[in-house]
Amino acid sequence: MKPTIMMFEPMLPEIEAALDRDYDVCRMTQEEGRARADAQPEAIRAVVTGGGTGLDPAWFDRLDNLGIIAVNGVGTDKVDLERARRRGVHVTTTPGVLTDDVADIGMALVLASLRRLGEGERMVRAGDWARGGKLPLATSLKGKTIGILGLGQIGKALARRAEAFGMRVAYWNRSDVADAGGWQRSDTPRDLAEAADILAVCVAANPQTEGMVDAAVIDALGPNGTLVNVARGSVVDEAALIEALKDRRIAGAGLDVFLNEPQINPAIVELDNVVLMPHQGSATLETRQAMGAIVLDNLHAYFAGRTPPHCVVHPVREAAQ
Ligand code: 8YV
Q1: Ligand 1: centre distance to CA 281 (Å)
Q2: What is the whole-number distance in angstroms between the Cα of residue 224 and the centre of ligand 1?
Q3: Across residues 65-89, what is the average pLDDT?
Q4: Which of 133, 147, 291, 320 has a CA between 20 and 30 Å from the CA of residue 36?
Q5: For residues 304 and 149, what is the distance between their CA atoms, to the nearest angstrom?
Q6: Higher pLDDT, residue 39 or 317
Q7: Residues with catalytic annotation?
Q8: What are the extents of the domains in the chain?
């Protein structure tokens, strides 16, 4: 009999077909799948989910025979890792393959914000250009400082892109970074915001980074500053950001991630000095194929009794320590 698994987000058709070949898949986006999981939670042995979706604690509690949570992404902020450890549940991610695409979206948001791409697009479409309207002058990237908050793989990839645009790079990272090039390290997120024209949030979301970009950090960016976020909405005090954007205490923001997405705070949509994307960092065909393949590898390894190759929680190894 095929093992039963729960899938919380749709995946590429070929990945879903591969899942269907080997598993009995309860699709939680469909009534039929939800009903089956609800009727027999003890049958579920694996969960496949997105980084922004994770696993709801109420479901986690009901899945007595859960052995693996395979995240189709790198963020584990929506999975209770402590509970996974306690319960002996593996948690896996898809590291490496999405780095460049997320950094590309970060760079695109820097460009779009400084060069007024959103405003320009809206102006042309509305016919304002044809009526003689002019876009205010934009801001050059060259010579500006990008402050990378969290110099992990994505942060480094964004820093390299920014350098290619003639920007200077500063960063803050909790631990030392061996290959930080000649980039300028700041002691605190606030110091980084002070040194930067653009603050780019790339740090992983966890209890330590929740609300790290608070009102003081946002104000330190200053009236010519721009905030870019490709990490998670929870790292930024969103209410403080909205106020700062309204009052023009910072110039603008480019956001791919939000609190409570996709039901985001409607006040954000009212702002004209923001560029908004619906969490698209890793959303390319190539990257979603590569991510899906890793999810399949992790699941197949687990069900074959092997160590899943990309574990962030590995109960057997951790128990031995
Ligand atoms: C994906 C992500 O959009 O990697 C992550 O943590 O949030 C994104 O890459 C997501 O995992 C797919 O839902």
Answers
A1: 8
A2: 30
A3: 97
A4: 291
A5: 39
A6: 39
A7: 232, 261, 279
A8: 4-96+285-319, 99-276
Asked if 205 and 230 count as a contact pair (C-beta separation under 8 A), the reply is no
Q: How far apart are CA 253 and CA 317, in angstroms?
A: 42
**Which CATH fold topology does 99-276 show?**
Rossmann fold (3.40.50)
Show the tokens assigned to 32. 């039929």
Average pLDDT over all residues of the chain: 97
Q: Could you give the 3-state DSSP secondary structure of residue 237?
A: coil
Question: Which H/E stretch holds residue 198?
Answer: strand 198-201
Contacts of 126 (CB under 8 A, 6+ apart): none
Of ligand 1's listed atoms, the one at least distance from the Cα of 102 is 9
Band of the pLDDT at 316, cuts 50, 70, 90? low
How far, CA to CA in Å, does 54 sit from each of 13, 48, 69, 118, 180?
A: 21, 9, 9, 31, 31
- For residue 19, give the 3-state DSSP assignment: helix
Ligand 1 centre distance from Cα of residue 142 (Å): 31
Q: How far is CA 278 from the centre of its chain?
A: 11
pLDDT(317) > 90: no
The residues that bridge with 172 in the sheet, in sequence order, are 149
pLDDT at 319: 65
Give the relative orientation of helices 153-164 and 99-114 as an angle to the nearest 10 degrees: 50
Four-way CATH pick for 4-96+285-319: 2.80.10.50, 3.20.20.450, 1.10.10.10, 3.40.50.720: 3.40.50.720
Name all residues whose Cβ lies below 6 A of ligand 1: 9, 50-52, 72-75, 98, 279, 281-282
What is residue 318's predicted lDDT score, i.e. its pLDDT? 65
148-177 per-position pLDDT tens digit: 999 999 999 999 999 999 999 999 999 999
Structure tokens at 9: 């987000």
Residues 36/25, Cβ–Cβ less than 8 Å: no
